[in-house]
Structure prediction request, 510 residues.
Amino acid sequence: MDFDTPIPFEAALEALTGRKALPTGLSTDQIRAAFSPQIRSLSLYSARTNEAAYLEEVRAAVKKMLDGEWNEATARQHLQFWCDKLGYTPQGGWPGQPAVPPAVKDTLTDLSSDSRTHLVIQTLTRLCTATAFAQTGFEPDNLYNWPAWELVRIYPKQTPRGFRRGKGGALEAVPEEAWPRRWTDAGMPFVDGRMIALKTNPGWQRLGDSGIFRDGTDASYGPFWFNSGGGLEEVGRKECIQIGLISPTEGQEARRVSLVSDLFDGHPERATVADLKSSRQEILEALAEMREAA
Amino acid sequence: MSGISINVRDGATPKLRALMDHIGSTLRTRLHRNMGRAIQNLCRKHLIGLAGSRHDSAQKIGGTPTGFLGYAAEACAQPAALSADAEAATLTIVHPSMARIEHDVTIRAGTQTPGIHLLTIPIAPEAYGYRIYQGADPRFPGGFWFTSKKGNAIYGVRDGKDIHPLYVGKEEVTLKQDRSLLPSDAEIMKVANDSFEEDLRETVAGLSGEIERRVA
Prediction:
């Protein structure tokens, strides 16, 4: 093990810096009606946030999170500081910008509230990291070795989706909101009782579809719903074969050919049969020794 | 900031080392990348497990979990976290928690926010995960600092005749080394070796297929 200087999450940062600021006074539903999912996925926006300078501070805070320099509390504090500095009030919105409906202080509609700044920071940070993670998941070897994703909880919640707080703070089930119901509504079958599907399954796109789920983010790789603690975990090939998601031979031949090609640095045609046999023997001996050592 | 660097040669048998010297750098890089991905997934899964089971400090005082280890799990899975070449695979996890794997970590006030003289450690559920200020205003109106009988700096608010303590102020805090934030070395080596072995087996099968084709 060793210690390194910080390496920014280049791919995640790219996903963030590539987003164009879209200041808008529209509500979430109005934004969905006005802009396609594609435009939204390329934009940096938040409902009723029509101050471009603030959106740039959101971008700066998320970048610090991705760089590993700030924790969420610091990022939230930064946004709340900028709300104050730019003169935002829940009742009056942003000075100098077109009026938006008054917000209720300390609720999600109040851009300076803890809940709203948390939602903005966590959603954007997670959209960036999830997109970057998923992109590498489709590289040929990763798709072969890890053919599926499983929906799992990454962030613990005091009140997980599918529950609400009842009398005395006790957790009460709300099955129609729970993950399993949403999984079914997105047309995804359970595998061995788990929410697993091949990475290539189009159902992943439906899981965050705001046309199906009112709180959907329209993100293909999570987080699928606003304020969700869920995310994706890769499922290995052996496990996928065991649970019947793929056959043992699926993609195998092409992979073997490409491994042999790489063994000879892309020029297997230059190897004689004797070279091939000698390489095979050498690998078999190394494998035997590995097994003995284990 | 910290990361882990794992080189398969550390645990390789003599024949495997000899083999690695012979095979082309393209395949070596690929084997290392696949091994690195397996380790990346192992570490991510481990951190996700910890995030679910170990939000102690939140649970202890009834606060809302901050998702600190969830962020660490996501940091672990980023493309830039994994690099591979013909010599090794390197996984670098950029997250404040990771420094604790190697040694105790001391956090001093003012590191993240210059000019701050005390770290505020929440001791009440409503304070957990939140800074003492909300924007430019104190989060808890009427909050004030006082010195406890034991000599600690405490921030609290009046609650009738009593004082409701919210934060303890410290100039620095030392977090003990915690190797369990990552899987054990043995677990990491097993996953690396399994990936390596599987790729080599597939290569052998590919070689056999190619030999058959040519002989036929």
The first strand of chain B starts at residue 4 and ends at 6.
